[in-house]
């Protein structure tokens, strides 16, 4: 997908009210003209950062992204690191380029990597049925294969906007969900689709894959991630969240980005025409400037194998670089991972937990992520030597046209800089 499709689309389907909202995500405008005050200048780019990219990051923060972290590694040993934020957000959190961040559905690439490692060891087959591993747990499980779960062709719908789950998604209800419970409330696709018939993104697929991994290995998903991914790669600031107490953990005092979403009235207006939210339905949390809500206390543990990872821009680029350069999977499994099904809404194709995205400056590989208050786009080039991360401290806050345009321009420019191509000349910062 183009960087534009990507930044619009992943905020719809990847977190919070994302997946089931399909093409409805983006941005809500909160800028100095809205009474938010001028954007803060305290967070600065590294000396290697060029001024145009830094200006675009500042403009995105000013026009609705609120907080933006950009990290570009062109493979020359001098990564660009930028952190910009709206001035009023400084009262909650002083943004830094190495802050921890909920990377949402980027987690799916880790889960898929773990599955393919087991495939390489002949412990799991891509042609295994779900029924073989999870008997009686998934409807039509005898017709759904591991491969279909990985590339979202299972025919399963998503649980995100079901009446049972929506209060937990918005933080209005505090409940700990198990993967089994989430699979139990997962509907079929609407309109119905047979297993293997078509691509349709669903978090339920990866909840099932997490359970299959645990059954096949006898280890918890948390243990597998530490043993197979974060430990070997030295990703000291990355872990699978099990609750909302994510400001620190036992290993570091590193801070976590504060996330925001529009209040109920603004959210209803943003989604008007796509989803008719009942009056007053919105995200739980303290009120903030510009009709925003601090969503940081919403428990993300439900997302688990589908989106529960906390990381940093640098850590996640380390993971994607290792993966796409062939360090984590044998060649045969890497080829399987990059075998895509047609996914036009993703701007390209979807493989086994990995997106192929056609940007204005070339093809990139990676994923997108979104949870209440957090959206992310993280990619490498085909070789895995170059990488880019754009992390934004709102998800639904970037649907309004002006904010979406600014965010799109930032993602495009960062992706082009990563690929060594000139920045697009038609961006707002010109």
Amino-to-carboxy terminus distance:
23 Å
Structural class: alpha+beta
Based on CA atoms alone, the radius of gyration comes out at: 20 Å
Task: Please report which band the strand proportion falls in: under 5%, 5-15%, 15-25%, 25-35%, 35-45% or over 45%.
Answer: 15-25%
Tally of separate helices: 14
What's the total count of β strands? 15
Order of helices and strands: HEHEEEHHHHHHHEEHEEHEHHEEEEEEH
In terms of per-residue confidence, which ranges show pLDDT below 50 for 5 or more consecutive residues?
1-46
Question: Could you give a short description of this structure?
Answer:
By secondary structure, the protein is of the alpha+beta class.
Feature tags:
430 residues, alpha+beta, nine-stranded antiparallel β-sheet, three-stranded antiparallel β-sheet, 14 helices, 32% helix, disordered N terminus
Describe this structure in words.
A hairpin with a 2-residue loop joins β13 and β14. Mean pLDDT is 87; it is low at 1-46. The chain contains 14 helices and 15 strands. The protein is 32% helix and 16% strand. α2 runs antiparallel to α14, α3 (107-120) packs parallel to α8 (203-217) and α3 (107-120) packs across α13. A 9-stranded antiparallel beta sheet has the order 1-3-2-15-14-13-12-11-10, sandwiched between helices. The protein has a 3-stranded antiparallel beta sheet with strand order 4-9-5. It has a 3-stranded antiparallel beta sheet with strand order 6-8-7. The protein has 430 residues and is an alpha+beta fold.
């Amino acid at each position: 997908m183009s960087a534009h499709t990507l930044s619009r689309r992943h905020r719809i389907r990847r977190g919070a009210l994302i997946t089931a909202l399909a093409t409805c995500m983006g941005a809500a405008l909160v800028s100095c003209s809205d009474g938010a005050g001028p954007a803060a200048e305290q967070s600065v780019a590294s000396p290697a950062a060029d001024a145009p990219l830094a200006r675009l990051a500042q403009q995105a923060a000013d026009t609705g992204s609120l907080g933006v972290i950009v990290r570009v590694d062109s493979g020359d040993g001098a990564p660009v690191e930028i952190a910009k934020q709206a001035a009023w957000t400084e009262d909650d959190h002083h943004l830094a380029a190495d802050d921890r961040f909920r990377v949402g559905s980027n987690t799916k690439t880790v889960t898929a990597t773990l599955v393919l490692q087991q495939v390489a060891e002949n412990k799991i087959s891509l042609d295994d049925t779900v029924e073989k591993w999870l008997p009686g747990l998934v409807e039509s499980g005898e017709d759904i294969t591991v491969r279909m779960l990985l590339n979202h062709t299972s025919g399963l719908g998503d649980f995100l906007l079901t009446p049972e789950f929506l209060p937990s998604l918005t933080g209005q209800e505090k409940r700990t969900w198990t993967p089994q419970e989430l699979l139990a409330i997962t509907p079929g696709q609407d309109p119905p689709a047979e297993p293997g018939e078509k691509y349709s993104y669903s978090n339920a697929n990866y909840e099932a894959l997490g359970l299959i991994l645990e059954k096949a290995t006898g280890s918890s998903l948390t243990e597998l991630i530490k043993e197979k991914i974060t430990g070997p790669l030295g990703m000291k600031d990355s872990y699978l969240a099990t609750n909302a107490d994510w400001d620190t953990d036992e290993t570091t005092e590193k801070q976590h980005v504060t996330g925001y979403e529009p209040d109920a009235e603004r959210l209803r207006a943003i989604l008007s025409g796509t989803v008719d939210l009942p009056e007053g339905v919105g995200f739980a949390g303290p009120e903030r400037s510009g009709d925003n809500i601090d969503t940081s206390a919403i428990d993300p543990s439900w997302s688990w194998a589908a989106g529960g990872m906390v990381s940093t821009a640098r850590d996640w680029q380390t993971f994607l670089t290792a993966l796409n350069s062939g360090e984590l999977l044998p060649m045969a499994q890497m080829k399987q991972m990059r075998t895509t099904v047609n996914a036009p809404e993703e701007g390209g194709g979807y493989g086994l937990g990995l997106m192929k995205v056609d940007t204005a400056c070339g093809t990139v590989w990676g994923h997108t992520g979104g949870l209440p208050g957090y959206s992310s786009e993280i990619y490498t080039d085909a070789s895995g030597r170059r990488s880019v991360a754009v992390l934004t401290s709102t998800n639904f806050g970037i649907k309004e046209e002006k904010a979406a345009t600014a965010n799109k321009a930032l993602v495009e420019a960062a992706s082009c800089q990563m690929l060594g191509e000139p920045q697009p000349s038609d961006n707002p910062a010109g």
